[in-house]
Specification:
about 475 residues; alpha/beta; Aspartate Aminotransferase, domain 1; Aspartate Aminotransferase, domain 2; eight-stranded mixed beta sheet; five-stranded mixed beta sheet; 15 helices; 15 strands; about 40% helix; globular; WH_DNA-bd_sf; transcription; pyridoxal phosphate binding; DNA-binding transcription factor activity
């Protein structure tokens, strides 16, 4: 640990050092067995007499805080364990705007046999050995400089080829900005296009982190209802400067924005001079139908910003994503990115570039689809067969979760909390609404659920629901 002396302190040097080391031991900063610096090294570093340090060590040893070990120097003894410390609250407080925000993952976090929360993926599918080789190859370069804020040229070129082949999007690499996931991408877009007090339209129900992100910037996130065809364009506020949508797999309900509604949304944006953020968070996993064209592909005016990430494809722990923007916005996006955290991690960028260019991403996606599509159908079938009366899964064609609606009598129940005793963790549907009203239901994620455990998991879910509603 670092030791300090203050020549203006009324306490002696011996007392200053003694109290610093003793406080470090009692607080747990120094734990049992931790080795203290030799007295000669401490004296040389602080520019004081060695005898001062040996006097301090002697006092601490006499009181049982430290002890000498043959060949091991001076270490903290086991006699005095750390005392619980309560840090002071401090004189600072968050702004009302930030204090009003709510974390998305503060639902029940207890241990459960079955984790059916959305957003989870199957860790067994992660290509660990291949990714390790790509990382080691990427680390072979000598990284001595900061990188390009928008991302390396090689990664942007690899992403452009992949998006052109997998999404049919027409773009050039210079339109891509590499981000730390979807939230970071939307944060950059909002900083560049919106000002505090501006209005943004978000789907209702929708993805809560995006609402909170916009509100953290002082932006009015207005909920726009969703029906069987997707976002209701006629209900978008006329003064909205940005509209955030999940057209390929609406979060959380699972619907698809119809072709007619897509064109209507693009025309609305053109009339009102607004931007559209298209969050394509899991369209890689189509289970029943051919995907519709991305909004970005239909856009003729340069109003759509396409956002994606590798959280579902590879791992959320990588914190890698991207956005595709009109060229006029890219310089500002890159500049804001640099102001926030300069550039994406260079080693991870290089590893991902190798992973894509060597064809591993395509093979990995085929393997994931082969695992997730049968699991989707199995979960959907079990939900239809086993859920108590009044509960039903909503239609879905893609993704790694299903929304389930429930009877009105269950609207006020804390379903997530009440299912914990039955060994089941689920996602909250109420949390996705700005105004929940009489919403009854929940979200069933199957990304982290092994296929062979589906029947047992849905059986436990049904048992818990029956106990909750008495049906």
């Amino acid at each position: 640990m670092e030791l300090f002396i203050d020549p203006d302190d009324e306490r002696s040097l011996t007392r200053q050092l003694y109290e610093q080391i003793r406080a470090a031991i009692l607080s747990g900063q120094l734990g049992p067995g931790d080795r203290l610096m030799p007295s000669r090294a401490v004296a040389a570093e602080l520019g004081i007499a060695r005898s001062t340090v040996t006097d301090v060590y002697g006092s601490l040893a006499a009181e049982g805080y430290i002890e000498g070990r043959a060949g091991g120097g001076t270490v903290v003894s086991d006699e005095h364990g750390p005392c619980p410390q309560t840090p002071p609250p401090g004189a600072l407080a968050p702004t009302p705007c930030s204090a009003a925000l709510r974390r998305y993952d503060d639902d029940p976090q207890g241990q459960a046999r079955f984790d059916l929360r959305p957003g989870r993926i199957d860790a067994q599918l992660f290509p660990a050995a291949i990714w390790r080789r790509c990382v080691l190859a990427g680390l072979g370069r000598a990284w001595a400089q900061y990188g390009e804020p928008a991302g390396s040229a090689d990664l942007r070129a690899a992403l452009a080829r992949w998006l052109t082949g997998s999404r049919g999007i027409t773009l050039v690499p210079e339109q891509i900005v590499v981000t730390a996931g979807t939230g970071h991408a939307i944060d950059l877009v909002a900083r560049v296009l919106l000002s505090p007090g501006d209005v943004a339209g978000v789907e209702e129900p929708g993805y809560p982190p995006v609402r909170e992100l916009l509100r953290s910037q002082g932006i009015k996130a207005v909920g726009v209802p969703v029906d069987g065809h997707g976002i209701v364009v006629d209900a978008i506020p006329a003064d909205a400067r940005l509209v955030y949508v999940t057209p390929s797999h609406q979060y959380p309900l699972g619907g698809v924005l119809s072709g007619q509604r897509r064109l209507q949304l693009l025309r609305w944006a053109g009339r009102h001079g607004a931007a559209i953020v298209e969050d394509d968070y899991d369209s890689e996993f189509r289970h029943t139908a051919r995907p519709l064209e991305p909004l970005h592909r239909l856009d003729r005016d340069g109003r759509v910003i396409y956002v994606g990430s590798f959280s579902k494809i590879l791992s959320p722990a990588l914190r890698m994503g991207f956005l595709v923007a009109p060229m006029a916005l890219v310089p500002a996006l890159a500049t804001v990115r640099q102001a926030i955290d300069w550039c994406p991690p260079l080693g991870t960028q290089e590893a991902l570039t190798i992973f894509i260019n060597e064809g591993h991403l395509g093979r990995h996606l085929r393997r994931m689809r082969a695992a997730y599509t049968p699991r989707f159908h199995c979960v959907h079938r079990e939900l239809l067969d086993r859920l108590p009366a009044g509960y039903r899964p909503l239609p879905a064609q893609a993704g790694l979760h299903l929304a389930v609606t429930g009877p009105r009598s269950a609207a006020q129940a804390d379903v997530c909390q009440n299912l914990l005793p039955h060994g089941v963790l689920i996602g909250s549907l109420r949390r996705t609404y700005q105004v929940p009203g009489s919403v009854a239901g929940f979200l069933v994620g199957f990304g982290a659920l092994p296929t062979e455990q589906v029947a047992a998991a849905i059986d436990a879910l049904a048992t818990g629901l029956t106990a909750l509603t008495g049906r």
